[in-house]
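--- STAGE predict ---
source: upstream dedup step, 1 unique chain passed
mode: sequence only
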Amino acid sequence: MPIRRKFDLHKTMFLLPNMITLSAIFCGFDSIRLAASATSEDDYYRASILLIFAMFFDMLDGRVARLTKTQSAFGLQIDSLADVISFGLAPALLVYKGSLYQAGTAGLIVSFVFVGAAACRLARFNVLSMGDDGKPRKPGKYIVGLVVPGAAGIVVALVVANHAIGGDLMSPRYVYAMMGLTLFLSFLMVSTIRFRSFKDLKLNARSAALVFFVVASSAVVSLQTKPAFVLLWLLGCYVSIGLVESIVSIPRRKRERAAATLAGRHSLPPDA
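--- STAGE serialize ---
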């Protein structure tokens, strides 16, 4: 008689976070399809909404993997590949087809810089996140460089907000501003500026104050403008916090480097 294999639920659970990641890839793929054949502002809006769904799946897959204890090197790699498609290529094509094509070759180059910066950022993240045994390390308090979904989110939030107010952000009038923003986001992705990961967020007075500020400020922005501006506001605050913390910490880092240099000199053996 054939031997019946026992069903292993734990092995099956490894599929769950990867299926969620594939869902993010599908959203990015369909966004590219819509943006590539867009004939109206509504098409760009629908393409941007798909990327918001991709962001939701991107946030969900890692949490599901940690909850089910199914983190793996394969999951780390496929997540980065998904980010290149959904948050590198898709938003770059969205901003190019919607606005930057009006700048000719310069707009094409700027759009590609965004994709290239996203790919380099994710490759660096994979190297820094992988231990000597090939398994993913535990996330730290800070992330080096702006996360790719965050950069993509700002582009997407602009498209959504512009659609909500019936604006002309994609018109030739703002093409150079959009080029400047795209280049700035590309720089932040490959920079060494540290942004908070919020992985160490604990329930205390500071975290409660942060949650209150997020909720209250989002409510004010929603009431004073439109709900579509809330995502743009939150991502703008996240980037601003990283930039301010980086500027404030410059003197401290200089003192640490000077102290390390001095300690190195004292550790050298005296000349014969």
